[in-house]
# Entry
Amino acid sequence: MTTILCDSIAADAWRTSLQWKAYDRIVVLTDTNVYREVFPVLDWLNEFPVFVIPAGENAKGLEQVERIYQKLHEFKCTRSSLLLCVGGGVVTDLGGFCASTYMRGIDVIHVPTTVLAMVDAAIGGKTGYNTAWGKNMIGTFHAPKAVWLYPDVLKTLDQREFYSGLAEAWKTAIMLDGALWIALRSNPLPNNWLHRTAAAKRDLVETDFKEKGVRAWLNFGHTIGHALEHFLLSNKQESLLHGEAIAWGMLLELNVVYSDIHPVFNELRDLVEKHIPAPKLQVEDIPAILERMQADKKNAHQKLVLAVPLGEGVGGQVVEVKVKVVEEILLRWINRWK
Ligand SMILES: NC(=O)c1ccc[n+]([C@@H]2O[C@H](COP(=O)([O-])OP(=O)(O)OC[C@H]3O[C@@H](n4cnc5c(N)ncnc54)[C@H](O)[C@@H]3O)[C@@H](O)[C@H]2O)c1
# Structure
């Protein structure tokens, strides 16, 4: 698996290449917000047939998957066609899934338009959609041919979405690159931080595409984070964005495994408490959150496992934890968030 990560100049050059011309159809998938905000900036997109899905996490379900298959059929896509996914992680996850299954698989190129998708969702080939019983429960591994980064499109992204994405960059840096972690804490952010973070993820994923080993480190924050995100989405008026849920998930998971003695704990807590809204939860919500954690697809043999960093940028470990300890930590944080 080799995902070519291109800056805007290299991406523009790709579009004149022979490889590009070999596709019999090129179809674009996007969402309503991205169509409105990004298409005027990347005006070359308008030369292709476009299919627009509703914006937001609620669109990431089977209903949209079926609509996308139908459109690919109507646009007469074949196995020699290309799907170009232009959007945040919802579009790249859904589009990646449809590309991997339509006619047993067609090529996909991602043009991520959120920080989260640039540093994380568009990189690494995990695709999928949500079901009533959990996040990303149906999915495939399908590497994009390339990921094209156009940082200029982020100008229209709102602040909350920006920090949600930055949280996934903190995760990659804490796991893989201590110097990047220091750089990401600075204000303003350093030049080329998007490429550096995306490349760090790509390089790790290329050693373990199907997540049999080290790739699992990048699940840091996700066991608790996904449970919080999915519970809030299905039960509360105010939900958390994906990266926001992962940010809190990282802190709580560090707490579960290391109490508060891990070297990044205090710095991460300061960043998260400054930039990320706190989830609105009650003590009575704890059993339902624990239930979601226990249904997490990363668990094996009925054991609850968390991926946590060993130190600062030196990799991670996957550890088994007791439900009782997670329950105590959730209780502590719910009281702090009040
Ligand atoms: N496949 C993976 O490895 C992976 C990794 C992390 C997250 N994810 C998934 O990614 C999803 C979250 O992605 P996201 O945070 O990008 O959310 P998103 O795709 O919902 O985008 C966030 C919002 O920003 C809007 N938007 C996108 N680009 C914009 C722009 N340039 N200007 C203005 N508005 C813009 C979108 O319309 C949407 O309303 C989750 O479903 C998560 O599970 C997947």
